[in-house]
Design brief:
mainly alpha, Rossmann fold, five-stranded mixed sheet, globular
Length: 441
């Protein structure tokens, strides 16, 4: 950690640790995804991301994207929280600080007890040095905390339009990005690359394509019944040694779901029972649950802390004499950026007429076209031709929303187009929407 800027040093350390953790996890999950794609292709099925993505799956690009994703979603926020905990302890005398500091190790210990050793080690590596960095220094007086606290409250108040946005804070930021061609690459990067690390944190039931390997003992009529019942739940079956997310095995004359020592009976006839069994099996084999909870806490609390404190530190660097004024300027800028009216977007998506949605799909404003495509979900048959055009839109967000809407058209032509998309080298996110649209069909 640097002596001049210990907070920045802590964030950098958290970023590095999160990057290494994400690189490793995404590398192995993508390796499995590549094997799954090959197994599905060999079985005559359409894999995701499939055509046009095999070279990417075999490269280090997904792991690098995963490293960046984990660095921001896990590392930076955790480092900010650890630094804050250490800083708060500076209000106590040196002897008491040392007595209270071990409480910072409770979250990593809980993760360790849950069984996720690699995540626990990453948290220890972030929390201990970043917490100690915040802890070092002279004892603080209460009034020394007043200015950064007020500055943070000011920034949070300026962001109220985001927090109370009808479409959500994330959506509000995305809409702002879409209207700037240079910044749109940030949005495109998110949708093109975050599905790779996302696969490493998903339970079985929400994977893009859950794949079950069928044990050789399952054959004949039992296999045919299994193929039909699994297909209705979106589960794909392969016989390859590699590529399966779990197995269907025969045990005591009955079919069981099996993975890493966990067995759940697959009901023979009840579709509702099969769905419940798969949900139960997914929950019992969900090893990434501690990671998702940790990421959520890191983003919601640590991420906000990192941004607000970082902007406050920046205001101090801008001018020692005008630091309060410069921070107010930053807050005003954020307010103006976040206060764009959204009533029209909400209306287009939820209540606009078919002609209004058609007009929106032809707008020169990317955000308006996006909400036109989202609104087209209510009129897929009437707007089928317009959706065929929107699928070729230069903006990725419009394309995947149009594909989603087209799934409701129900025509032979729309199904043929969705199949064409699945077999094409298009973006994974677009193909994923086509996959779910076909399932709905």
């Amino acid at each position: 950690m640097t002596k001049r800027h210990p907070f920045a040093g802590s964030l950098f350390w958290g970023f590095l640790t999160g990057f290494v953790t994400g690189f490793s996890r995404t590398y192995f999950s993508t390796k499995h995804l590549y094997e799954k794609n090959l197994a599905l292709r060999d079985a005559g099925l359409i894999p995701l991301p499939g055509e046009g993505h095999y070279e990417t799956l075999a490269s280090l690009k997904p792991a690098l994207a995963g490293g960046f994703f984990y660095a921001l979603a896990l590392g930076v926020g955790t480092a900010a929280l650890a630094f804050l905990f250490g800083t708060l302890l500076r209000f106590f005398a040196p002897q008491r600080r040392k007595a209270f500091f071990p409480f910072a190790l409770i979250p990593p210990l809980l993760v360790l007890l849950s069984g996720d050793v690699t995540l626990a080690m990453a948290l220890f590596i972030i929390v201990i040095p970043c917490g100690l960095s915040g802890l070092s220094g002279e004892q603080l007086r209460p009034k020394e905390a007043l200015e950064p606290v007020l500055a943070t409250l000011l920034l949070l108040l300026s962001a109220l339009p985001v927090f109370f946005s009808e479409t959500g804070g994330f959506t509000m930021v995305r809409n702002a990005l879409l209207n700037n061609s240079a910044l749109r690459t940030v949005s495109d990067f998110y949708y093109e690359w975050t599905l790779y690390p996302a696969e490493s944190i998903k339970p079985l039931e929400v994977l893009s394509q859950p794949v079950g390997r069928v044990s050789p003992e399952i054959e004949g009529q039992t296999l045919k019944v299994l193929e039909r019942s699994a297909g209705k739940l979106g589960i794909l079956l392969v016989k390859s040694e590699k590529g399966g997310d779990f197995e269907f095995i025969l045990k005591d004359g009955a079919v069981y779901l099996s993975r890493k020592g966990v067995f759940v009976l697959w009901p023979e006839k009840s579709q509702a029972g099969q769905a419940a069994a798969f949900k139960e099996f997914s929950g019992k084999t969900d090893a990434a649950k501690p990671l998702r909870k940790t990421m959520l806490a890191s983003l919601l609390f640590g991420g906000v802390l990192a941004v607000t404190t970082g902007l406050y530190k920046l205001s101090l660097l801008l001018s020692a004499k005008l630091r309060r004024e410069s921070f107010v300027v930053l807050a005003i800028i954020l307010f103006l950026l976040s206060s764009r009216g959204e009533a029209e977007f909400v209306r287009l998506e939820k209540t606009a007429s078919v002609e209004e949605v058609r007009t929106a799909l032809g707008s020169s404003d990317p955000a308006v076209r996006l909400y036109g495509a989202r609104g087209a979900v209510r009129y897929p048959k009437e707007l089928e031709e317009d959706l065929f055009t929107a699928i070729e839109d230069p903006v990725l967000n419009v394309r995947y929303s149009a594909v989603t809407a087209l799934g409701g058209a129900g025509s032979a032509r729309s199904r043929e187009k969705l199949l064409e998309i699945l077999k094409s080298p298009r973006e994974w996110y677009v193909k994923d929407r086509a996959w779910w649209a076909l399932k709905r069909n």
